[in-house]
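User: My collaborator sent over this chain with a note saying "see what the structure looks like." That's all I know about it. Can you take a look?
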Amino acid sequence: MVLNNKKLDSDIIIGVMAKYPEEGKVKTRLVPPLTYRQAAGLYEAILLDTIETINRLDPYFQKVIFYYPENKGTYFNNIIDSDWLTVSQSGKDLGERLKNAFLEFKDSKSPVIIIGSDSTALPDQYLIDSGDLLSDNDIVLGPSEDGGFYLIAIKDTSGSFIKDIFNNIRWSTSYALSDIIENIKIVNKKFALVGKWYDIDTPDDIKRLTSEFGMSDLKKSKNTRLFISKYL
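Assistant: Without extra context I'll predict from the sequence alone. Here is the result:
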């Protein structure tokens, strides 16, 4: 398959759902205590660390960034290496954007893993495990501690069920994970879970992050560490 003039060579595709770090548009639940500029800066730092996490796993995955808004492609091309693909997000809500992201690769016959861009220090092994679990499952989910999910992987993106599993999900609530699991059960697909992780959404999450900076995984999050040491 060829997309954006680049050939897909890996058996597994991994994508990051990313937004342009515009003040007042990202991480607004962190304001206060952060300013809107600081919240955007923290989001950008976490995004850069997420990209680095995936770069470390090369050549396990073909790498894709699903970006928003459409007119910010230049920014995203400047923060990724040339072996990444870029795809503009489309859809009126997160469910539609995820569905359309998976459907971009419906003809590739490759499993697709998609993660968010706000789970700094996500263990590399969780991403590797999600690919391995697709050998025996149709779908793999990465549960977040707040009841959502930071990862979803689908073995066969040509399946019609993709149009159904993202319906009626209560996004940004503690019900998002249970809602999508219910949808997966309705379409009779086998699923598995990888390790639980957490997003950086609230001031308490920042306190947790700074308290855990001595842990090995967080040592790899150099952009987030630098931002917090400079501004927080």
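A starting point for your reply to your collaborator: The longest helix spans residues 36-56.
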